[in-house]
Amino acid sequence: MKKLTLIVLIASVVYSCGSSSKGQLTGVKAKKKWYSEKPFGTVLIPGGSFTMGKQDEDIAGSLSTPARTVTVTPFYMDETEITNSEYRQFVFWVRDSIIRTKLAMLAEESGGNTSSLSKYKFKDSTKGGGVYYKYMMDNYGSLGDINSPTEGKVLDWTEDLIFDTNEFPDVYYAEVMDSMYLHTDETFNGKRILDADKVVYTYFTFDNEEAARHKGKDRKSFIKKEELNIYPDTTVWVKDFNYSYNDPMHQDYFSHTAYDDYPVVGV
Questions:
Q1: CA 197 to CA 45: how far, in whole Å?
Q2: How many degrees, rounded to 5, is the angle at CA 134 between CA 133 and CA 140?
């Protein structure tokens, strides 16, 4: 009997040791595995470490200059320079975003009564916005993003913009487009030119260092608005190269399709 009891006890111990249970604290299981995605058109620069600081004797013949080892984490870098065509795509996207925002806000102010503006109004909360988007729009009129001029409302990109002045549908549309052009006294030959100073990319950041220093303060006070004029400075062809005839480069380098695959200059 004692021998049988001993065998059962040993078997129980062995079975418990082989249990696949990891206890009660197992951590939150991810729904799917994460893999580092390589951004398009980039290469991975491996991480490493190097010694920063002077290694040789200084003027006084001593080695008093401090040196330290710095570790650099891996990062992705563009495989090639950004071309005029690629950067122009970004400029056009920012330009179109600004124009669509102006059209949508004017459509909202007018109640959507003008046919030309109604096509560019903010996306209907009942169409493709999701339940949460519809709930917020119906109850608050926005997503609560007070820092954004659209307050989080979604732009409708399905309707194409019209840039030919002869095809502007009405004065409301012309008013919005006129706000993006240079003033008439800054143009000639009756040609309206895009005001580069109006092509501004706006984004927001959160100041973690300030938030850490002022614990308990309202979070909104640490939200920083950044505005960046993204249009290339084409005058560098004239400013940086004296006594050279670079007027054609100043006029055409960024905009002409012949230079699409050339690296962007002036940003």
A1: 35
A2: 85
Contact 197, 230 (CB under 8 A): no
From residue 257, alpha-carbon distances to 88, 161, 237, 250 in Å are 11, 21, 18, 14
In one-letter notation, the amino acid at residue 163 is: F
Beta strands in 64-171 (DSSP E): 68-72, 75-78
For residues 251 and 192, give the distance between their C-alpha atoms in angstroms, rounded to a whole number: 15
Q: What would the pLDDT profile of 56-86 be if each residue is shown by its tens digit?
A: 666 666 666 677 888 999 999 988 888 999 9
Q: How far apart are CA 154 and CA 45, in angstroms?
A: 37
In 3D space, the residue among 169, 171, 176 whose CA is nearest the CA of residue 103 turns out to be: 176
pLDDT in tens, 96-113: 999 999 988 888 887 766
- Return the residue matching tokens 């650099």: 72
Pairwise CA distance, residues 75 & 46, whole Å = 7
Residue 202 backbone dihedrals phi, psi, to 5 degrees: -110, 135
User: What are 20's two structure tokens?
Assistant: 């696949």
Residue ranges covered by each domain of the chain:
42-79, 199-231
Q: Report pLDDT for 4.
A: 62
Read off the pTM.
Answer: 0.72
CA distance 225 to 206: 9
